[in-house]
């Protein structure tokens, strides 16, 4: 029986050899498959989903064909549809490669731009006070040259069915990579300007959304509600059909079931200070007496690709005008808004050293926070709302810190808090802070349950807007200003 161990060892060696041989064969087979796919793609013109470098020439050829404008309008639409279909067939990586190709290879040609500038400069040196024909032609040529090939290509997509939605989604993909290179940033600026012209507020329709709206539109509202999620069909029905509720949206004519931005409104007596009251689903209206206040309690956008295309401010103003016409008794237009950046700012401030030398008042209130369990407990521990929310000292410090954050802390474009910046830039004033106004997990995690009312006082909207954008002045009530000095 001595040969058995020998045979076992022999078979193990054979198995090991076969496995060792199989591994390079596997890589070799994979390489041959890739060669076969590349050859097939070159023959058929079909690109792979990831758009590898070997396939870029296929896309480039189609782009160049689109830009050639050979044939009539029907041929142009067919070429654009074919290229658009190729883009939709790509995965995320492939679409990013497609956009990098447009950014790098289809900007304004430098040589053509230099020539157009020289022609314009030469035309401007001619005598005569009246616009000379040569100069006008030079200006026209310069404008035509400054319109990059990629913008011309995007315009062709717009002519296709659902082309405007296709382009909004394409820019959403571009936003995910635009910070990689200056070329991508420049492409995004062009893209944004193009979309802004197509989504000008003059082209949009203000529409009240009711429970009778198409199911597809209601599903969009539910899917894109970003502030207070829709909890059930009963919830959305109540928000749309109760006597004291309504919803308005901006609709683009080419996207009738895809609202661009929408706002939920409740009609109340006086300014509310608790979101649970507004979100309660029952058969009772919020107020039995005639209402005097319209409360904007949630605003959500649906198209990430339209980021920076500012029609949100026009929505508020248009809705205020419409509500004023429909409800003559309304005197107050306000919000009950979250404060999404408060916790993150507070965490950064608590980690700074030497804060007492720059702002002793701020430091004193930060010390109160630390002495009462610190930020993790206050913003995360659910028992805190029940056991310590009535702590007057802690309440005082949190409200003063929150007032400082909203009024004093600034970003490049305005208030550091994004919701504050939105409403202040629209002409609102900070009215008041509300303690334990949102006791949901999200409300506690973002702002320890604090919410804020922004007031849209009609006679002051334009003045507030101008002051905020020219001098950075933030309109606020005396009680808000007092929180900064206590």
Terminus-to-terminus distance: 96 Å
- Named at the architecture level, the CATH assignment of the largest domain is Up-down Bundle
Fill in the CATH topology of the largest domain.
Butyryl-CoA Dehydrogenase, subunit A, domain 3
SS element count, helices: 23
Strand content: 5-15%
Q: Give the C-alpha Rg.
A: 30 Å
pLDDT averaged residue by residue? 86
The CATH C-level class name of the largest domain: Mainly Alpha
Number of self-contained structural domains:
4
Shape type? globular
Fraction in helix: 55-70%
CATH H-level superfamily title of the largest domain: Malonyl-CoA decarboxylase, oligemerization domain
Strand order of the largest sheet: 1-2-3-4-5
Strands, total number: 9
Q: Given the helix and strand composition, which structural class is it? A: alpha+beta
Main beta-sheet annotation: 5 strands, mixed
Low-confidence stretches: none
Q: How would you describe this structure in keywords?
A:
Butyryl-CoA Dehydrogenase, subunit A, domain 3; Aminopeptidase; alpha+beta; 9 strands; two-stranded antiparallel sheet; 486 residues; five-stranded mixed β-sheet
In short:
The chain is an alpha+beta fold and 486 residues long.
Write the layout of secondary structure elements.
Layout: H1 3-44, H2 56-68, H3 73-88, H4 92-105, H5 110-124, H6 133-146, H7 149-158, H8 163-175, H9 182-198, E1 205-208, H10 215-224, H11 233-241, E2 245-251, E3 261-268, H12 275-279, E4 293-301, H13 312-326, E5 332-335, H14 342-351, H15 355-358, H16 360-371, H17 374-380, H18 382-387, H19 392-408, E6 410-411, E7 414-415, H20 418-425, E8 429-434, H21 441-447, E9 451-455, H22 461-470, H23 478-482
Parallel strand pairs: 4-5
Antiparallel strand pairs: 1-2, 2-3, 3-4, 6-7, 8-9
């Amino acid at each position: 029986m001595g040969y058995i161990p020998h045979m076992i060892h022999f078979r193990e060696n054979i198995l090991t050899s076969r496995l060792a041989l199989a591994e390079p064969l596997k890589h070799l087979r994979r390489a041959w498959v890739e060669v076969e796919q590349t050859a097939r793609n070159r023959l058929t013109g079909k690109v792979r989903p990831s758009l590898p470098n070997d396939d870029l020439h296929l896309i480039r050829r189609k782009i160049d064909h689109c830009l050639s404008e050979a044939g009539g309008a029907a041929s142009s639409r067919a070429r654009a549809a074919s290229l658009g279909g190729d883009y939709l067939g790509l995965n995320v990586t492939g679409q990013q490669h497609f956009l990098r190709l447009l950014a790098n290879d289809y900007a304004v040609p430098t040589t053509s731009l230099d020539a157009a500038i020289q022609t314009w400069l030469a035309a401007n040196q001619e005598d005569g006070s009246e616009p000379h024909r040569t100069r006008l032609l030079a200006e026209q040529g310069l404008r035509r040259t400054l319109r990059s090939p990629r913008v011309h290509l995007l315009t062709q997509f717009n002519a296709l069915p659902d082309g405007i939605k296709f382009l909004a989604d394409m820019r959403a993909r571009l936003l995910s990579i635009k910070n990689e290179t200056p070329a991508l940033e420049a492409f995004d600026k062009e893209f944004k300007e193009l979309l802004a012209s197509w989504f000008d507020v003059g082209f949009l329709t203000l529409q009240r959304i009711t429970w009778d709206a198409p199911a597809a539109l209601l599903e969009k509202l539910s899917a894109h509600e970003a502030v207070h999620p829709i909890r059930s069909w009963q919830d959305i029905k109540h928000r749309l059909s109760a006597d004291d509720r309504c919803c308005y949206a901006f609709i683009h004519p080419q996207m009738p079931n895809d609202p661009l931005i929408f706002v939920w409104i409740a009609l109340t007596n006086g300014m509310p200070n608790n979101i649970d009251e507004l979100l309660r689903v029952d058969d009772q209206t919020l107020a039995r007496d005639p209402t005097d206040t319209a409360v904007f309690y949630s605003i959500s956008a649906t198209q990430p690709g339209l980021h920076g295309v500012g029609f949100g401010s026009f929505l508020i103003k248009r809705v205020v005008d419409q509500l004023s016409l429909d409800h003559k008794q309304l005197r107050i237009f306000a919000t009950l808004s979250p404060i999404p950046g408060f916790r993150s700012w507070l965490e950064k401030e608590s980690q700074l050293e030497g804060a007492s030398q720059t702002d002793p008042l701020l430091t004193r209130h930060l010390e109160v926070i630390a002495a009462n369990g610190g930020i993790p407990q206050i913003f995360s521990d659910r028992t805190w709302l029940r056991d310590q929310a009535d702590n007057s000292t802690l309440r005082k410090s949190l409200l003063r810190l929150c007032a400082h954050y909203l009024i004093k802390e600034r970003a490049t474009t305005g208030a550091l808090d994004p919701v504050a910046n939105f409403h202040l830039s629209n002409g609102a004033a900070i009215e008041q802070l509300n303690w334990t106004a949102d006791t949901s997990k999200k409300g506690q995690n973002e702002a320890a349950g604090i919410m804020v009312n922004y007031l849209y006082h009609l006679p002051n909207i334009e003045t507030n807007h101008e002051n905020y954008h020219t001098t950075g002045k933030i309109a606020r009530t005396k009680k808000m200003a007092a929180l900064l000095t206590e």
